[in-house]
Design a protein that fits this description.
It contains ten helices and two strands. The protein has 210 residues and is mainly α. The chain has one domain. The longest helix is centred in the last third of the chain and has 32 residues. It is globular and about 60 Å long.
Length: 210
């Protein structure tokens, strides 16, 4: 099965694209934060966050594909430390989302907090449990041929991730913007923030179950 997929062609492209879409568009830490950011800060201010995810994730895919993932797995202490740092960072981000104060007509359009910057969103992928699941699963399934991992397929998979992640992350941000327009009252938006924070914490459950 793996060898036939790694053989390339339209079947490989369709399968890899379907896998990538399921990973990029489904709920997870990235999309939850983007929806919350869109609701609290608007689409334009969230663009660096969108681009950080969209470019940071394919870069992670390439680096893991060329061997960095094996280096980390060969050093369990480092790998475990990264996972627990990621869990702590996710909890901190959840708190930031929960305590964000949406802009209202009485505060001159200001909010407490700010969106993630480009480099923050890109680096976050390395401590994002879902990102590791997507990258390791994608590389194992779609880039491994008879002679091992094929770099051209790794680069192609990373390109597919980029092409699909940009529109999917934009849609999640737009969803947050739309929610803010519907939930005009500050209290309603704060409840939305707490719900997004709870979803972000919930994304840690698979990690904690390991």
């Amino acid at each position: 099965m793996t060898q036939s997929i790694a053989g390339g062609g339209l079947y490989w492209l369709a399968a890899a694209s379907a896998f990538t879409f399921s990973m990029a568009a489904s709920p997870g830490p990235n999309n939850t934060m983007l929806a919350a950011s869109g609701a609290n800060f608007g689409f334009a201010r969230t663009i660096p966050h969108i681009l950080g995810i969209s470019f940071g994730f394919p870069v992670m895919c390439v680096l893991v594909g060329v061997g960095l993932g094996e280096v980390l797995r060969a050093n369990p202490a480092v790998y475990q430390a990264m996972k627990w740092v990621g869990a702590g960072y996710l909890l901190w981000l959840a708190w930031r989302i929960a305590t964000s104060r949406p802009a209202t007509g009485t505060d001159n359009g200001t909010t407490r907090g700010r969106p993630l910057r480009f480099h923050e969103a890109a680096l976050f992928q390395w401590v994002n449990p879902k990102a590791w699941m997507a990258v390791t699963g994608g590389i194992a399934t779609f880039t491994t041929g008879t002679s091992g991992i094929e770099i051209d397929l790794v680069l192609t998979l990373a390109g597919i991730f980029l092409l699909i992640t940009v529109p999917s992350t934009s849609c999640w941000t737009a969803l947050g913007v739309g929610v803010a327009r519907v939930l005009r009252h500050g209290t309603a938006l704060r409840i939305f923030n707490w719900c997004m924070a709870a979803l972000l914490v919930g994304s840690l459950l698979p990690f904690l179950a390991e």
